[in-house]
Amino acid sequence: MSDLIVSTVAQGLLWSVMAIGLYLTFRTLLIADLSVEGTFPLGAAVAAVLLDEKHSPATAIFAAGIAGMLAGAVTGLLHTKLKIPALLAGILTMIALYSVNLRVMGKANLSLLNTDTVYTSLAFLNLSPNMTTFVVGLIIAVLIPVLLYMFFGTEIGMALRATGNNPQMIRAMGVNTDNMLLLGLVISNGLVAVAGAFIAQNNGFADVGMGVGTIVIGLASVIIGEVLFGSKSVKNSLISVVLGSIVYRIVIAVVLYLGMPPNDLKLFTAILVAIALSLPLFKAKWDSRKVGVKCYE
Amino acid sequence: MLRNLRQKKMIALAVGAILTMGVFAGCGGEKKEAGSEKAKVYQIGVLQMVQHGALDDSNKGFVDGLASKGYKDGANIKIDQQNAQGDQSNLKTISQRFVNNKVDLIFAIATPAAQIVANETRTIPIVGAAIVDYKTAKLVQSNEKPGGNVTGTTNYNPPKRQIDLALKLFPNAKTVGALYTSSELNAQLQVKAMKEYAAEKGLTVIEATVSNVNDIQQAAQSLLGKADFIYCPTDNNLASAMSNVAKITVPAKMPVFVGDETMVKTGGTAGISVNFYKLGFQAGEMAADILSGKSKTADMPIGSQAEVKVIINKEAAKAIGLIIPEELMKEAK
């Protein structure tokens, strides 16, 4: 039983990197970036090919991040230079990446069973596979938010956040908002590709179909995190996203455990996200009612 | 502070939910111990990648294969049926559930499903089906002697058979069009083998790939007038949309040769078929031998279908004006 908790939380930690990438575009730049459904398997594909050729896991993950950044730049350029709406630009990159991913791997599915990965490199710790995943997940789920938090504290990071918040104001201060959007998409997709690299190594294969449904997983994690754990400040938000990702995995594990037909899982996810999105409204109503009661007393 | 309190409550709730599950699981466990004077009930996890005809057939065959050797669901085995609906992050969750429930055997249908469980456990025996090439997927060391905890049956159907059949019916054919899904390793491997054989026979190959069912009509259209006949491998996407292909090929009098019985029934012209139900049945028999301790996965060679049969869709053949030789008619069904 405890093993199931460890493995579920470990999955949540691994997926949180992708959720943070989505948080960056969805919450700070206010665009829903669909290119992640292509960059996620792109990161997986690049990492898998390099690992298959006996390169070190560090090289593979680094290369995956670079590839993701390039893909993000494509979306950014389509959006800022060619003035294609963000949603469409993301979709275009996503479908283009399908072909790119096939080219990268040379086939639809590349197995990593019995290949050295970031997880096997921790063999000296003598942990169970689930614990190893947990340790790796913990490291990246702490390291990446911390780095991002530090970045948000810099002048460029502030400008990036302001771009989503108040574009007029930041333009008046002489910041080029287009460049900020481009930068945001580059970082976001780099993170998503890195997440893809970690997940593929954990699954034991990279597959071109890996990206299907990732945007929903990421957005659900972001929203559940915000609703349950708040979004008062940047620090608070980043922690919320990581926790939201873990809660999402726990919820899925629980419903499967309780015997929900897997066919209904997608419907359930949609309902879950809808509820999470509407909770603040209900909360506001509830609070105002409580205040009203107090007045009459 | 209040905010923190709420957060703590939420975390407590989540943890509480898990613990409650643990209690339920615990109850289940106790029940088993109570019935320990009865024979052991084996737990079997079935993980199917996605829902469609051929994979459903494998699944049904597996359950029947187990039953044929005396392992009946609900009596001496308990089968936990799970389907990932094509979402690979579900595969992981489900396979972890199997490993944590300490099932005695896992049946994995389709390549990614088998890869994910093989990565999750090195000890629980895994039997696969609807997997073309176990070695390329790194599931086994070799097909004759797997050497690990994975074995199963392969639906590999040498494309040579389809090409030979096509050449028997169309001796003057010069060009073959390959129609398949670019994202399926199984389909790619078959087309690669087909191209090698076609080269031997002096045929030119034109490829048309699709990424999902929506591209199929256009891809089929692109082969009209260029190819003398179309070859389709056993491919999940095309299996679900063969009638779509027929819409394009039948009016154009273009014959389509396939490698799966259901694909002939739904619009293919003819094919040499493997039968997914039978392959699933065979996997079920293998699983029974593993459960009874008769054999070990490491030494069980990957099974394949021994007898294949020619299947001709007589209506489709008539519609494209194809005259089938008497001898073929006899062996076909």
From TrEMBL, chain A:
<keyword id="KW-0472">Membrane</keyword>
<protein>
    <submittedName>
        <fullName>ABC transporter permease</fullName>
    </submittedName>
</protein>
<feature type="transmembrane region" description="Helical">
    <location>
        <begin position="134"/>
        <end position="160"/>
    </location>
</feature>
<keyword id="KW-0812">Transmembrane</keyword>
<feature type="transmembrane region" description="Helical">
    <location>
        <begin position="84"/>
        <end position="102"/>
    </location>
</feature>
<keyword id="KW-1003">Cell membrane</keyword>
<dbReference type="InterPro" id="IPR001851">
    <property type="entry name" value="ABC_transp_permease"/>
</dbReference>
<feature type="transmembrane region" description="Helical">
    <location>
        <begin position="238"/>
        <end position="259"/>
    </location>
</feature>
<feature type="transmembrane region" description="Helical">
    <location>
        <begin position="181"/>
        <end position="200"/>
    </location>
</feature>
<feature type="transmembrane region" description="Helical">
    <location>
        <begin position="265"/>
        <end position="282"/>
    </location>
</feature>
<dbReference type="GO" id="GO:0022857">
    <property type="term" value="F:transmembrane transporter activity"/>
</dbReference>
<dbReference type="GO" id="GO:0005886">
    <property type="term" value="C:plasma membrane"/>
</dbReference>
<keyword id="KW-1133">Transmembrane helix</keyword>
<feature type="transmembrane region" description="Helical">
    <location>
        <begin position="212"/>
        <end position="231"/>
    </location>
</feature>
<feature type="transmembrane region" description="Helical">
    <location>
        <begin position="58"/>
        <end position="78"/>
    </location>
</feature>
<dbReference type="Pfam" id="PF02653">
    <property type="entry name" value="BPD_transp_2"/>
</dbReference>
TrEMBL record, chain B:
<dbReference type="InterPro" id="IPR028082">
    <property type="entry name" value="Peripla_BP_I"/>
</dbReference>
<dbReference type="Pfam" id="PF04392">
    <property type="entry name" value="ABC_sub_bind"/>
</dbReference>
<keyword id="KW-0732">Signal</keyword>
<protein>
    <submittedName>
        <fullName>ABC transporter substrate-binding protein</fullName>
    </submittedName>
</protein>
<feature type="signal peptide">
    <location>
        <begin position="1"/>
        <end position="25"/>
    </location>
</feature>
<dbReference type="InterPro" id="IPR007487">
    <property type="entry name" value="ABC_transpt-TYRBP-like"/>
</dbReference>
